[in-house]
Design a protein that fits this description.
The protein contains 13 helices and two strands, in the order H-H-H-H-H-H-H-H-H-H-H-H-E-E-H. A two-stranded antiparallel sheet has the order 1-2. The relative contact order is 0.12. Keywords: Cell membrane, Membrane, Transmembrane, Transmembrane helix, Transport.
Length: 285
């Protein structure tokens, strides 16, 4: 009996050591992946804080620190104006996509009507169409509406996102129908049920989706470059101001690119708790 207990204890010890090694190996891999992902961002800010003569240096630590690249960038482009324009475009686009996705997913998940599946597949099918296919019709339509070279022309074709509808519908279908039925028995309207029952319980998913939509709009370069041909009204196009036939001005360019990252970082910090809840607990299905 004593020998069996010793053997069992030894087996548990070996199994515990194996779990510890697997845990250490997993954490080591995650640390390496995190360093690889974060290093370009660190190098971006490190280069922006070097002196102009040291921009090409390969030293991992910028020293002495200098803000000359930031002052140089501020003297060449209207950074505040570019930030406000980019934020406005991204905010309006993301808010509109979130609102339309919320209403459409609510209708597809909570109601039954004729041609429901066909309409949903047609809606989602637009997500599968490459942007290059719809780019030319959108451009012609904006030209006829007189919206070329305007920020409205950048926003209008992005007011709806089929991806947002797809993601929110998955959450809506798994929402407890008993709560909706109880709210209807209390005499609440569909509009009231949406905003007082469904939306408060979907805050993590809405927060995660909103930041995804905002980042997608914030980072968009190609479509603004097509619409805004005569001006660099958004931050991503403003970076072109530091590119020339005689070479690129890397220091100010890194400074502007670094400032372009800050709003997204701040948004993530503000919504971090909801995003973690959405991805880890409920998850974007």
């Amino acid at each position: 009996m004593t020998t069996e207990m010793r053997n069992t204890g030894a087996a548990d010890s070996v199994e515990g050591s194996g779990d510890l090694l697997r845990r250490i190996r997993g954490h080591a891999i995650l640390v390496v992946i995190a360093v690889v992902c974060a290093f370009p961002i660190y190098w971006l800010f490190a280069t922006s804080l070097r002196r102009p003569d040291d921009v090409g240096s390969l030293s991992p630590f910028p020293w002495p620190l200098s803000i000359e690249n930031y002052t140089d960038a501020a003297s060449k482009v209207d950074i505040v104006g570019l930030l406000l324009n980019t934020f406005g475009v991204a905010f309006v686009s993301a808010a509109s996509q979130l609102l339309i996705a919320l209403l459409a997913s609510y209708a597809f998940a909570m109601y039954t009507f004729r041609f429901q599946k066909i309409l949903y597949l047609a809606f989602i099918g637009t997500w599968l169409v490459p942007f290059q296919v719809t780019m030319l019709p959108n451009y012609v339509l904006l030209y006829q509406m007189g919206l070329i070279n305007t920020l409205a022309g950048v926003v209008v074709p992005t007011l709806c996102s089929a991806l947002g509808v797809l993601m929110l519908r998955q959450h809506m279908t798994s929402f407890p129908k008993e709560l909706v039925a109880a709210a209807r028995m209390d005499g609440r309207s569909s509009w009231s049920i949406l905003w007082t029952v469904v939306v408060p319980n979907l805050r993590p998913a809405l927060a995660a989706l909103s930041i995804l939509l905002f980042i997608n709009s914030w980072n968009e370069y190609f479509w603004p470059a097509v619409v805004l041909q005569r001006s660099n009204s958004v931050l991503q196009l403003g970076l072109r101001s530091f590119m020339g036939t005689e070479g690129n001005d890397w220091g100010p360019m890194m400074a502007v690119a670094g400032m372009a990252c800050l709003p997204v970082f701040l948004l993530y910090i503000v919504l971090q708790r909801h995003i973690v809840n959405a991805f880890v607990r409920s998850g974007l299905k």
